[in-house]
């Protein structure tokens, strides 16, 4: 059993920063992908993980907002 809950608390904090009132309709896959990108960074992910994340974002419906 871990002697500290700091790593779990950091993940919950990251999740709360990503899933705000303006972004409360994120799917589980999208939230997981965002958390992986924020936590690990692009360089730390394997090519397979990066490809899966890219596919998740490709499948998202188009938005009416111009970025």
UniProtKB/TrEMBL annotation:
Pfam families: Dimer_Tnp_hAT. Residues 1-37 form the HAT C-terminal dimerisation domain. InterPro entries: HATC_C_dom, RNaseH-like_sf. One of its GO terms (molecular function) is protein dimerization activity. It comes from the Eukaryota. Signal peptide: none annotated. This is HAT C-terminal dimerisation domain-containing protein. The lineage of its organism: Eukaryota, Metazoa, Spiralia, Lophotrochozoa, Mollusca.
